[in-house]
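Q: what does this look like with pyridoxal-5'-phosphate bound?
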Amino acid sequence: MKSMVDGKILDLMPYQPGKPLEEVQGEFNLKKVVKLASNENPFPPPAKVVKAIQDEIASLRLYPDTDSYFLRKRIAEYQGVGIGNIIMGSGSVELIKMIVKVFLKPGERVLTAKSTFPMFKVAAIENGGRQAIIEADMDGDYGYDLDRMYDMMDSTVKIIFIANPNNPTGTMLPRDKLLDFIRSVPGDRIIVLDNDYQEYVSDSDKHVDGIKLALNRKNIIVLRTFSKIYGLAGLRVGYGIANEESISYLSRVRAPFNLTRVGQQAALASLESDDFKKRSAELNQKNREALFNRLSELGMRPVPTHANFILFFPGRDIDEVNGGLLRQGVVIRPLRAFGVPDGMRVTVGFEEDICFFIESLRRVLERIS
Ligand SMILES: Cc1ncc(COP(=O)(O)O)c(C=O)c1O
């Protein structure tokens, strides 16, 4: 069989998500499991969204609107762009793949950072093989090192992926630095600004809102998602914003009906739920500070974060720490696949979840040391 498979695919490993809650519960025979592994919103969707989902059930025998017209129209209004500037994806992850498929030609490469969302690399390898990805080391504070990336940008680099805030480090690029970098990149290279965690940034005047840039610069594509602050990770809705011409090329590779009927209606309703968004951001801000402090007290060297998760360093064997936590019913994320082999990432949850995690971590650390 192997000889029948494209060599580029043989270079790939399947994406390893955080373990599903139900699997951990069954595997370790646990009463309580707390999942803080995938940067999901701890709140269930608001009533308005639940109602929109329920109302759509009767129509499920019908295919969805393939162009997600009403959702794109509403997002266009919400973000102050034209409907032709928007493309929907089955999660923003689908858009990452589409961008690479459309813009990466043979011999060209994708440039990103070493400790970032692994799907940038996966999409590059899938399309161009191992030689199609180059990854810059992080700066001393676990952020994207844009000077280094600029130096690595030879004529083969075609697409640059920047997650801001970055997953898994939670870092945010200083506004001036990012704007300088964008100005210095030649217009024939695509810059993808993945802003999936933007709503969690509390000092928003220091954050670069990619959407405004994408309207003025043809080589910028912005990614946004309903999986994080909107609390709809299970429905798979993301979108990209760019100039109309780029959107038209991306549309050529979009699978028909890539958003479900339920996903479209839920996303529409969630755009009318600003209070839910506000409540989610406030809870996150309060709890991430508490979580940061408790990790510091345990000597875990947490990295200051602008998102809804925290990177930390247990200073022990990561597999042992992870195994110990799983046995106690806590699912967080070891970060080997994210280019941080000695780090772990924990999502900011409800206060009781944080307490459960911290107490479990304390017990695991005591047992190991
Ligand atoms: C930086 C970043 N981009 C994209 C994604 C994909 O998100 P989704 O496909 O759920 O929109 C994630 C998911 O965690 C992420 O962290």
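The first strand starts at residue 34 and ends at 35. The pocket of pyridoxal-5'-phosphate is lined by residues 39, 91-93, 117, 163, 167, 194, 196, 225, 227, 233, 238 (CB under 6 Å).
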